Amino acid sequence: MTSTTTSMPSPCPTDPPPPDSADERLRRWRLVLGGEAGEDGTGRVLSGRDAAVDRTLEALYGAGSRPPGAGAGVSAGPGAGRRSGGLGASAPRVARWLGDIRSYFPASVVQVMQRDALDRLGLTALLLEPELLEAVEPDVHLVGTLLSLGKAMPEETKATAREVVRKVVEDLERRLASRTRAALTGALDRSARAARPRHRDIDWNRTVRANLKNYLPEHRTVVPERLVGYARAARSVRKEVILCIDQSGSMAASVVHASVFGAVLASIRALDTRLVAFDTSVVDLTDQLADPVDVLFGVQLGGGTDINRALSYCQSRITRPADTVVVLISDLYEGGVREGMLERVAAMRASGVRFVTLPALSDEGAPAYDRENAAALAELGAPAFACTPDHFPEVMAAALEQRPLPVPEPGSGT
User: Fold this and answer.
1) What pLDDT, in 10s, does the model give residues 343-359?
2) E strands within 174-323?
3) Cα–Cα distance for residue pair 93/84, rounded to 1 Å
4) How far apart are alpha carbons 181 and 174 in whole angstroms?
């Protein structure tokens, strides 16, 4: 669904020359161009740490870099640069290379290089080796790759894979959970205003706005004929949320984020949260929401897409339409009955369900999605827009309060 970064990251060795010096500029050009001294026009000879950094870059971005097991004459494909090399077929050798890049580059660059190695050199199969998994820098994209391997993963690798996935999940929870709970708890309180609130439950801002017509200028005060207040969010479940997640291969990053958010939403007492994953079949993972790692390992990435079938299942689980929010996370490439999909969304909207469509829930930039289906859903009152994880709490808060969704402006990056 998204393009893969293939540009070579900037190396970050320690103790470089001053950044504005001519020597530093030549050094950086030499690391970018590769090759022997004199061949690249810089005349710069690398040694020590710079030479080691150059070797790690050469192995991945060289013109002769190749998939494991490929012959020496196999190039990396169209557009390959002047460098030559390759990581070779040995899993221990790849593990050492992964350890090298972690020592030479910051974590964000390491993640890009790992992704490039998987895509350019065909190293996905080597992730089945436990020693290789122990050497990688965990990130959302790596989790998606591990989940896509599914049943091909041997038993001795699964425990290591779970630890990799858990590290990513815990990092996402630390970053997203507190903000999500705060935003949604406030939204739930505001959406359940009491007609006769107790003093401590009065929403004074809304009360003043509701009684401005009763302003007495001579006394410079407002007479509050009607009090607006908050109800107690914890008294009972008042809102239902159904996360309906497309688990086709292109949605890997969105599946990871949605699983984490599902676990966070399930921890809010005033919400009854259900998580449904689908391709051409439908699986209800609600019972596993206590642990998003279990949710992710219950997902089977890949296969086709039958949105109509998934929405049929979700529709059958709705008990209080006016208090329900359905979030469809899908690229909308429907392999099932398109007319049925649209009819179900229309029926849910007519019954009072708030319907949110997200072609992506990730930080990966503009997604690819079926724009014709997105336009049809927008006409039904369910606009489709990509959403970053940081923006998701605001979207859910608006949906729970029945106010307009904060649809980002095109090109805003949200």
Assistant:
1) 999 999 999 999 999 99
2) 193-194, 215-216, 221-222, 229-230, 239-246, 271-278, 282-284
3) 17
4) 12
